[in-house]
Amino acid sequence: MQLSIPEVSRNTLVAALDDVDLQRWLPFLEMVDLPLGKVLSEENVTTSHVYFPTTAIVSKLHVMEDGSSAQLAVVGNEGVVGISVIMGGVSGAIRAVVLNAGKALRMRSEFFREEVNRPPVLHLLLRYIQALMSQMSHTAACNRHHVLDQQLCRWLLLSMDRTQGNWLFMTQELIATMLGVRREGVTEAAMKLQKAGLIRYARGRIEVMDRVGLERRACECYGVVKRAYDRLLPRCDDHLLYLPEPARGDGAGHGLAREPYRILPYAAMEPVHARLDSLDLGHRTHLPASKGAPDPR
Known about the structure:
By secondary structure, the protein is α+β, with helices and mostly antiparallel strands. The protein is built from eleven helices and twelve strands. The protein is 37% helix and 20% strand.
């Protein structure tokens, strides 16, 4: 059964497609459940599907020869898993594992590879790759230069940005694997955050109690990465999906997509109007009066 536009629009990359592209994609998308720990792609293996998470969170891990691993990035409803398809199809030394159970849109790699030849789709994916590279590079720098408390705060905030609530189901052992540290270190760092009233942790459930406090405790890496995503990728505000892409050569504006059916969790923290003023676009799209940005919490 073909999915509806409201269902597929729960991923901001898919929602950012124009109407013609979206209608062409609909028959090739299916909604699937992604259980915790499911491996979506293995290192050095050709990827058969790409996934656009809607409620699931996926971790991209670099796998060493001895089997140990460390997290490079997290992907949620702002992105796609399997981007290596457009660069040959082999994922290299990267493994994609479901970090938080949920749902995702799945598409055959063959169709996705064909779609990348279309300029609007390619431009959108190139912006996403740039944002993803920013996250990966800052993760590497953060792991080298910042203390574990700050790394844990950054990791929690990035994960929360990609889920619909303020909690995650995550064991300390899994967190340690993601961060590439010992479990005892994660236990100590989590206890510090809990004593400070920033999180509540019990039986694998992590609940953020004070997001503002968590942001203050995090290192600079979280803010830098978030600003990169906000600058490069679609944003939802005032029931409008805004795509920061220059106008097409034919003069048709491509900055404002269809009205979405709901505000997505990866919502803008500032009104679209403020972002328009800061962007050098070849086309300006008239927007209705702003009602203010939704509270991301």
